Amino acid sequence: MAGSDGAVVDVAIVGSGPAGLSAAAHAAARGMSHVLLEKTDHLSDTIYKYQKGKHVMATPAHLVLRSDLDFDAGKREAILETWNRQIAEGKISVLLNAEVTAIDGVAGDFTVTIKDGQPVRAKAVVLAIGTQGNPNLLRLPGADLPHVQYQLDDPTEYVDEHIVVIGSGDAGIENALGLAADAAQGNVVTLLNRGTDFARAKAANVKLLMEAESEGRLFIRRETSPAEVRPGEIVLDTRDGQETIRCDRIIARTGSKPPRGFIESCGVNFSGPDQGAFPSLSQTFESTKPGLYVIGALAGYPLIKHCMNQGYDVIEFLSGNTDLKPADEPILEEKFADLPGRRSVDEWLQLFGRNVIILQELSVLQLRELMLESEARYFKAGEVIFTRNDPGSSMFAIAQGSVAVEVDPNDPSITVPIGEGSIFGEVGLISGRRRGATIRAAEPTIALEFSRNAALKLLATTPSAARAVNRISIERQLLQMFGSGLTSEDLAQITEVAVVEDKRAGEVVVQEGADDKDVFLIRRGSMVVEKDIGGHPVFLSYLPAGSYFGEMAVIDGSSRTATVKAAIKSQVVRFPGEAFMALLDRKPALREKALADMANRREVNAFVESRKDSFGDAADYYSQTAQFLVDNGIGEATDVLLIDETLCIGCDNCEKACADSHDGLSRLDREAGRTYAHLHVPTSCRHCEHPHCMADCPPNAIKRGTDGEVFIDETCIGCGNCQRNCPYGVIRMDAKPPKKPGLLSWMFLGLGPGPGEASYSWRKKKAESQGKEVPKVAIKCDMCSGIEGGPACVRACPTGAAIRVGPEKFLAVSQLDRAG
Fold it and tell me: Ranges for the 4Fe-4S ferredoxin-type domain (predicted)?
């Protein structure tokens, strides 16, 4: 075997995945002496371990394949057969069962140590080992139980099992689809997704997953993560608290990590300390160890076609062809063609990576992949980038220049600058809200626009980018909340020590009587505040997203005076008390505001203490009422329809008015929903702060309007994803009915079905008479957007029983006055 008999080969290739195979095939075609080292007894272990029958995609479709091996989309077995045949035909030097334990030496004279084998000497070494051999293990109680596995070989082996798949990337989705493919197997398959999007997965896989969910072949649990594994069951942290479900088998596909210790021992440096960091590489894939090259998933390019191109390219570089450009060069050249200046693709990428904060720890390979899904745009001074209330969920980064944010809609001259290297548009990315301000280029500006999927993938796979976006968004939330003339420089110290924490529904964030001294900002979700009176909790107040709490104990050094817990699954930012106090010391105006807020909360506490002897049943009533409202969605709502049943006379005017205002289809069901005491929450949209219905809307048809209303536009394709994702059952799928005759025609001529929603039989008969079938679309409350006078349901109520309110207006401690 070349290289194992003392002879020095031109190149030793470690790992026989797509990148390593392609490199070895091209080395053979080039006539280079080489050896391909594989630690298992077969080639391409990653593909080999794919589940049986898996369809392997050849994406990106627009990227040209450079390789001496063939590769087209197809079944796993067919691809492996093709590669094995071509490797044999190409007379490629392969050494199986050759586990590499060390790589020593210098460029031109490396020694590759093989476990239980003779060492290999090589002039250059190409590491193409991938990461799949090092899966991320679950870290939770019970994770070591025997029914937890990290690999799925053959989905047909499992019958009549309740199987939970953890992980929302391509591997997890493909495993779930494989297990649910044959209904005759009788498996109940549940896929857990920590978020609402599937940013790590290919669009084609997400489409198949959505189809499987709509057909009832599997279940998707969004905003859900595992909390504990038990024999025969799994405990889940959901948006509404903990839940236990049956579970016979767990397949965890939560990603993998490179064998960093081994790679660093070879002399290769990484781009950063994070677990997800990649090796630092040159444009030619050479690492910080001269003569040692890294390609494939280990380099940050996991797609098979990318890996195979890198295998081809690295051999070209080793052969002296340093002028070779990557296969994606023509695509990026076209993207950058309209930018000013005569820079090459490499020069533009260097500029982007150097200037943009969130890109500074990306390798050139990662940056190239990101730009394939993004746009680089040039704006002249004064040119509008986007306008207030425009729809949009992309995120921008300023590569050159600066922008001005028009903060006052009535006076465009009042602006706040955002400088080079920073980002904007992150609010639309995170919340799906319309653009909150008009932004113009303050000078000639080059901005990178990342699509929603590209941005979410960047944040999910690059910890440094996620930290930068977190820091910037926290800073801006603090500036908006505190005001008082603060600047970014004022907040630099406190944002550097801020920690973002997720809280499950019901989790206590601050405990009454505790002595901790942190301040919290509610970034997402909501909190309820309670005080212990006579051994039972009394509801004090509700805190929506954007509120802060915990400052009282920090400012006066007292113990916590109340308990604060998450009303729903929430996210908070924790600030050390010392940093908060240091900020107050530097900014007297902010101290005055904090003291005023603290005084108001002290008044609430004093009021509760003064009435504690007379609360009795009233305290229980108000606490139970508050809990009822939180349980029914008010904890994440921005606008809720409530009906006071002591005033409601059951006339159904609210439903009729809703139907008459919306093409004959009512958006609410008055009788449906739950009731506590005299308070009824009918089935009608809550217009959630972070709408569940927006998750997985293929045409992006669900938007948020200028007044906070969540609505569905005419691009809806009727897929039903929003209906399935809404936890409150307020979205219906129905066909837009034929136009009804007017009210006078009904009254005097008896034409049409009359006021309100037409019966299904009338709509069906009318549609049939017109000889066409009308497709169904998603229908939900839009708060009568564009209709003068506001929500028709409220205007039509003759007794004032129907009201639409924000949660903070309804859940107020002032109602406790009735207890006296």
Answer: 639-671, 708-736, 775-808
Number of domains composing the chain: 5
Same domain, residue pair 663 and 806: yes
Residue 56 has pLDDT above 70, yes or no: yes
Instruction: Using only the alpha carbons of the chain, give its radius of gyration.
Output: 30
Q: Which residues contact 431 (CB under 8 A, 6 or more apart)?
A: 689, 690, 704
Dist. CA 689–CA 545, nearest whole Å: 8
Burial 448-463, CB ≥16 within 10 A → b, else e: bbbebbbbbbbbbbbb
Contacts of 425 (CB under 8 A, 6+ apart): 386, 392, 394, 395, 396, 435, 439
The one-letter code for the residue type at 506 is G
Spatial separation of the C-alpha atoms in residues 476 and 412, rounded to whole Å:
20
Q: What backbone torsions phi and psi does residue 534 show, to the nearest 5 degrees?
A: 65, 30
Asked if the model's pLDDT at residue 747 lies above 60, the reply is no
Nearest to 460 by CA among 780, 63, 819, 169: 169
Q: Quick one: tokens of 121? A: 């000497």
DSSP classification of residue 270: B
**Strand 518-524's sheet: what is its strand order?**
499-503, 570-576, 518-524, 548-549
Q: Which residues pair with 735 in a beta bridge?
A: 776
Residue 606: domain span: 493-610
Confidence at residue 812, expressed as pLDDT on a 0 to 100 scale = 46
Of the candidates 18, 85, 28, the residue with the CA atom closest to the CA atom of residue 56: 18
306, 327, 348 — which closes off a domain?
A: 327
Which of 603-617, 623-637, 766-780, 786-800 is least confident?
603-617
Residue where a domain stops, chosen among 218, 237, 252: 252
- Asked if residue 768 belongs to a domain, the reply is no
Domain identity same for 500 and 515: yes
**796 and 667 co-located in one domain:** yes
Domain CATH code at residue 222: 3.50.50.60
Q: Report whether the peptide linkage leading into residue 60 is cis, meaning its omega lies within 30 degrees of zero.
A: yes
- Shared domain for 14 and 117, answered yes or no, is yes
76 and 189 share a domain? no
Average pLDDT over residues 80-90: 94
Tell me: the pLDDT tens digits for 111-160?
A: 999 998 899 999 999 999 977 767 889 999 999 999 999 999 899 999 99
505-514 burial, b if ≥16 CB within 10 A, otherwise e?
A: beeebbebee
Assign residue 655 the CATH number of its domain. Answer: 3.30.70.20
Between CA 39 and CA 48 the distance in angstroms is: 13
Q: Which of 576, 565, 558 is nearest to 518 (CA)?
A: 576
Residue 154: inside a domain: yes
Backbone angles phi, psi at 406, to 5 degrees: -80, 100
276 and 233 in a common domain: no
